[in-house]
């Protein structure tokens, strides 16, 4: 039924957004995803582009990111964007490249990140439950309008509940994996 596939699509989008959100969380390990979506006001603020559109981002070992802008004239703009970001990283310019040294996370920082992740995960779980509630309401309305049989209503509700559990579990697994990544020293 159309409602089921719409519900699945919405839940898959929620999960994709969660994965994207969690990518940018600093875990103490160098990962280009940490900075690739930073918005850079390049060319005297005339254009706002994401860092991955303006530069090559690579890793050098477990705690160093190297950003090499395609156009060396925007190095200062890239530095500004990194400094303004909530990442707490000080860029070091070496010729036409910017080196970002990631410091190890303190226990306190790890705890804050885990709380933040839990918050994000809870928001996504709430979104999934809201989608479930919307679909259940549509199923109920369809039954009351005599467009759906009682058996069909119960079957659809059961399917939606099973899918809700599946997607909620998937969100939990993503959370656990990110927490393990943060806990690693």
Structural features, described:
With 185 residues, the protein is an alpha+beta fold. It has 2 domains: 100 residues, Orthogonal Bundle (Topoisomerase I, Chain A, domain 4); 70 residues, 2-Layer Sandwich (Gyrase A, domain 2). It has 5 helices and 6 strands, in the order H-E-E-H-E-E-H-E-E-H-H. The strands form 2 sheets. A 4-stranded antiparallel β-sheet has the order 3-4-6-5. It has a two-stranded antiparallel ribbon with strand order 1-2. Strand 5 and strand 6 form a beta hairpin. Helix 1 runs antiparallel to helix 4, helix 1 runs parallel beside helix 5 and helix 4 runs antiparallel to helix 5. The longest helix is centred in the last third of the chain and has 38 residues. The radius of gyration is 22 Å and the shape is elongated. It starts with a helix and ends with a helix. The model has no long low-confidence stretch (mean pLDDT 87). Pfam families: RRF (PF01765). One of its GO terms (biological process) is translation. InterPro entries: Ribosome_recyc_fac, Ribosome_recyc_fac_dom, RRF_sf. Keywords: Protein biosynthesis.
Helix content: 55-70%
Number of helices: 5
- CATH topology assignment of the largest domain: Topoisomerase I, Chain A, domain 4
Estimate what percentage of residues fall within beta strands: 15-25%
Distance between the termini: 48 Å
**How would you classify the helix and strand content by structural class?**
alpha+beta
The unreliable regions are none
The major pleated sheet works out as: 4 strands, antiparallel
Counted up, domains total 2
In the sheet with the most strands, the strands line up as 3-4-6-5
Pfam families: RRF
Domain Ribosome recycling factor: 18-182
GO biological process, one term: translation
Family: Belongs to the RRF family.
């Amino acid at each position: 039924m159309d409602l089921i596939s719409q519900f699945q699509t919405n839940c898959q989008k929620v999960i994709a957004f969660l994965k994207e959100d969690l990518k940018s969380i600093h875990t103490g390990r160098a990962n280009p995803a940490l900075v690739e979506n930073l918005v850079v006001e390049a060319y005297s603020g005339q254009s706002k582009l994401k860092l991955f559109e303006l530069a090559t981002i690579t890793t050098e070992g477990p705690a160093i990111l190297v950003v090499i802008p395609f156009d060396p004239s925007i190095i200062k703009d890239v530095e500004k964007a990194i400094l303004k970001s909530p990442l707490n990283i000080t860029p070091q310019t070496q010729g036409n490249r910017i080196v970002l040294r990631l410091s190890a996370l303190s226990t306190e920082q790890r705890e804050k990140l885990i709380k933040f992740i839990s918050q994000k995960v809870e928001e996504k779980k709430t979104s999934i439950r809201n989608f479930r509630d919307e679909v259940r309401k549509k199923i109920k309305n369809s039954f009351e309008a005599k467009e759906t049989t009682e058996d069909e209503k119960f079957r659809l509700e059961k399917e939606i509940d099973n899918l809700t559990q599946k997607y909620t579990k998937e969100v939990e697994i993503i959370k656990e994996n990110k927490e393990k990544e943060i806990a690693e020293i």
